[in-house]
C-alpha cells in the first residue's frame, strides 16, 4: 500500500490490487485480441500468415505515402519551372513571381513619386509667377 499526494490531500493507493487487476486484464486481452497480439507478440503468433499480411500491407501503405509525397514535390517543382518560363516569355528578365511583384511595386512607387514631385514643382512655379 502506498500514498499519493493529489493537490493537498493524501490519497491511499492500493498498488498491489491495481497491479494484480492490470496484469490480469493484460493477460486476458493479450490472448484474445489480435491487435494486442501484434503490439506484444507472443512467440506462438510471431510469424503467422495473418501477421505477415498485416505487416506487408502496412509497409505497402508507407511506400505509397512516400511515393505520393515525392510526386507532390515533383509537381511543385514543375509548376515553379512553368512560372519562370512564363515570366521569361512575358519579357521580364529572370524575375520569378516574388521578384516580379517587387519590381512592379518599385516601378509604381517611382512613377508616383516622380508625378507627385512634378505636380508640386508646377504648383510652386505657378504660384511664384502669380505673385
Helix content: over 70%
Order of helices and strands: EEHHHH
Number of strands: 2
Strand order of the largest sheet: 1-2
Ends: how far apart? 104 Å
Radius of gyration: 37 Å
Q: Overall pLDDT, averaged? A: 71
* Sheet/helix structural class: mainly alpha
Alpha plus pi helix count: 4
Shape: elongated
**Beta-strand content bin:** 5-15%
Structure description:
- There is one protein chain.
- By secondary structure, the protein is mainly α.
- The chain has a domain at 1-45.
- The protein contains 4 helices and 2 strands; from the N terminus they run E-E-H-H-H-H.
- It has helices spanning 15-32, 34-39, 49-89, 97-130, and strands at 2-6, 9-13.
- Strands 1-2 form a two-stranded antiparallel ribbon.
- It starts with a strand and ends with a helix.
Amino acid at each position: 500500500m502506498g500514498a499519493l499526494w493529489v493537490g493537498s490531500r493524501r490519497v491511499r493507493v492500493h498498488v498491489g490490487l491495481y497491479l494484480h487487476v492490470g496484469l490480469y486484464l493484460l493477460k486476458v486481452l493479450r490472448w484474445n485480441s489480435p491487435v494486442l497480439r501484434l503490439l506484444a507478440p507472443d512467440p506462438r503468433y510471431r510469424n503467422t500468415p495473418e501477421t505477415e499480411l498485416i505487416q506487408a500491407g502496412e509497409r505497402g501503405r508507407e511506400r505509397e505515402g512516400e511515393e505520393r509525397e515525392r510526386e507532390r514535390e515533383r509537381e511543385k517543382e514543375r509548376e515553379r519551372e512553368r512560372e519562370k518560363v512564363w515570366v521569361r516569355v512575358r519579357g521580364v528578365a529572370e524575375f520569378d513571381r516574388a521578384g516580379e511583384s517587387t519590381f512592379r511595386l518599385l516601378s509604381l512607387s517611382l512613377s508616383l513619386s516622380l508625378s507627385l514631385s512634378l505636380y508640386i514643382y508646377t504648383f510652386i512655379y505657378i504660384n511664384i509667377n502669380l505673385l
